[in-house]
User: Fold these one by one.
Assistant:
Number 1:
Amino acid sequence: MRASPITLNRLRQMKEQGDKIVCLTAYDVSFARVLEQAGVDVILVGDTLGMVIQGHKTTVPVTMEDMMYHSQAVSRGMENALLMVDMPFMGCPTVDLALVNATRLMQAGAQVIKLEGSGVQLEIVTELARRSIPVCAHLGLQPQSVHKLGGYRVQGRDSAAAKAMLESAMALEKAGADLLLLECVPVELASEITESVAIPVIGIGAGVNCDGQVLVLQDLLGITPGKAPRFSKDFMHGADSIADAIGRYVADVRAGTFPGPEHAFS
Ligand code: KIV
């Protein structure tokens, strides 16, 4: 465990110094403690809890009450990591509701609110930032839009989509986003976005050149049913305990050896 709390300034400093940021999901107090001990920098209470905890097929059914319940549980196990929490599906259809729901998540323990999308979200990011609510914007594959997208697919593959994503990233930074998460984005595009913005970029399925990495805990532990996503790795393989597996993930992200080319899209 580290000696001092992780702050947004510290994450920015890590980007500037080329030190990789380690992020991982957790949904309860026991795992929050294990992640703290392993030295994870950012703990994400992701709305993936709808799939890996509640057994839904998508993240769409997850409610504000679910997010608050799990955020409170995780926050009780936290010492020095930064707690990031997802705004659930339709948690911010208007600026007013975004402010109300972001307040509820912050009061449940969140230190950063993660929002999927750009476009209409720009005004919301601006207003949250004006009120000193830290925001992580989420671009690339946005699982809350799975029904519109027609499946979980790599995003930004053609040049028009890549240009639009780069422009969105820069607009979100200008609007006041503090962090950016890129999900399932070709490695070349993720690298270009990471170089083009000053805010730290955390990737999942976005290659090794992002400033940091995130995984869903259950994928890391190899207990996701069915075929594991290409970008994930079963760190239990060869590990002698859950804590050891999480420690190996932390070490590999810090060393830049995870993700490998086999976990990325080009
Ligand atoms: O909800 C979540 O766990 C996420 C990850 C896919 C990064 O957003």
Note: The radius of gyration is 17 Å.
Number 2:
Amino acid sequence: MTDQPEAGPGSGPESGPESGPGSGLEPGPVTWRRDGTLGIVTINNPPVNAIGQAVRLGLMQVLERAAADTDLTGLVLCCAGRTFVAGADITELGQRLDPTLPQVIARLEALPFPTVAAIHGTALGGGLELALGCTFRVAAPGARLGLPEVKLGLLPGAGGTVRATYLIGARAALDLIGTGNPLPADAARNLGLIDAVAGAQDAPTRAACDHLRRHNAQGAISPPVLHRKDAMPPPDMAAFGDHARKLLRKARSAAPVAVVEAIRNALVLPPVEALARERALFQAALESPVSAARRHLFFAERKAARLPRDIRDAARGDTHPGALPGPRPEARHLARAGVVGAGLMGSGIAMALADAGFDVTLREVSQEALQKGLARIARSYDKDVARGRLSAPQARTRRLRIVGTTDLAALSECDLIIEAAFEDLAVKQDIFRDLDRIARPGAILATNTSYLDLDAIAAVTARPADVVGLHFFSPAQRMTLLEVVRGARTAPDVLASALALARRMGKQPVIVGAARGFVGNRMLAARNAPLARLLLEGATPAAVDAAFRDFGWPMGPFEMQDMAGLDISWRNRKATGQAEPLADALCEAGHFGQKTGRGWYRYEDGARTPLPDPHVTRLSRTLAARRGVAPRALEAAEIIARTHGPLVDEGRAILREGIAARASDIDVIWTHGYGFPGDLGGPMYWARTQGLIDDG
Ligand code: CAA
């Protein structure tokens, strides 16, 4: 520990240092100082103050020292930098390094004077658990508090389920911990998770000191959170059961089940026993393959969102030995955005941009098509309001950010223009010729193509370095994945801008190479190629879909195709001279999927429940007989092997060709964009854990 002053927004009143040279305390990520009779403990472990072993050791040392200081009347726990503790250090999870977080929290809770956590930024996971070990919690107005462990296949393991239940009740604790979604400070205060929200102008540390002084002046006695069980109303176990069932209905993995058990324990067992059971559940979850897969994805997502080193180095000019590195590529300033094409994709992209605060000019060729697009946008925002996702004024503000036009020149002042027109190279090249003519110098010109050759599009402009692919997934305003397609001449700062744009839009970017279908769609084609053959050999669409769902996919490939419509691929096949006898026969009979009431399944009276269609079975049998294929029973394991094997093989080919930089990027693409079960970590991670490959 050192006696450096606090650096972050948690800064509080200064007074003489109490630790440092001669104090016998080692320098480290935890510092200590006195403010009158209050002790101020600051954690300084950039970037997010994650609690690793060094922080736990530092905290233990400070707490021992504070306990021995007979003058102290209270202690404030705060953090330097941009945030309060954002959780246990995920890189250390699984290593049993003493002291443990529960030990640190027990020591904190046993101090003979009141303590308060001064929270800014985010208090997440182990960070919030640490704060729950304090007598009080005071947060900055913009702070967010959560227990997101379920998202890592875990549950809180340092008393979070127990103490949160005592503070906010079982129902609210189920919502908080079962969903893992953080709460804003106001909502946390209304629930009783925190005691006060600091004023907009107050540093939370100062507000926390004031809170303690007021408390002490009143001579009040406040028990530690762990001793507040008796103050709870008697639990209504029936209501708890109902609420838990609702939560678990949506759950796909074991972690929410463990959360429910831990909260039930908090209600019915003595606190110390409930804590011990929570820890045991946490340890079991930690050792589960699901948690390992989720942690893999956590880091994979963050790696994917950064500019790869080769691009950074190329931009800095340090690829030649001895060359002086130039500056890192800076993202360009993007304020005004344009979208070309107001179809399903274009209007979704316009909404995603408006949702991120951009003023958007949406251009269509005809008034009629434009009005159709704008009406679609209005309907979509109305739906958001009806479903409680947005308030009416919020929806209105966003909708008004989108202005329609039929005049391409209206995009001339845009910093970013995203083309989302018909998927045809000549059409897109025409648009890019026009954009090159009208766009301001330095504007980023992006195409949303999902298959076409980005370099062939960029080549028609005099500024190929400004051209990039931004492959959104439908519906663009909801889906998080964004494939950022790097053309042969795309400038590093354009890629940096695309990553910054994704962050601003709340999307998960992955940089991919400019090859047909990029990464996601190319692998999808490989996965789906064997499907028709499976039907010929005797599988039914329902059997294939069930095998996929059992594997963890939210939906099987045939249900998915019925939902999306079979006609688009059919038209593409006809245009390119390809054939897919089964699917072609369905389309020729007008069976395009849900929208026509028949496809791979039949649907009754506009309902969305897929029912087996004997017509499909007959067609498969006829075709099989014609080809001399004898139908047989196919096990789910074979169905998975014959579809997922090609998926993984294509992923490996993509890596060999450098279309994706890392196997983990492919995992991010498939879990964010295609519904590959996150509990399995993505296709390449899954293949590696199954021993199918050793280089994924
Ligand atoms: N442990 C280790 N590293 C972490 C971390 C953690 N808990 N949280 C973030 N980081 C790292 C990231 O990997 C990233 O590192 P690089 O710069 O090397 O990529 C860096 O901190 C910054 O993170 P972000 O890019 O995510 O920054 P952000 O500003 O977008 O988001 C955040 C900040 C909201 C805190 C986000 O990082 C986050 O959600 N973190 C994880 C929170 C979480 O899940 N906490 C629970 C941990 S499990 C736990 O605590 C169990 C327990 O009880 C014992």
Note: Residues 1-25 have pLDDT under 50 and may be disordered.
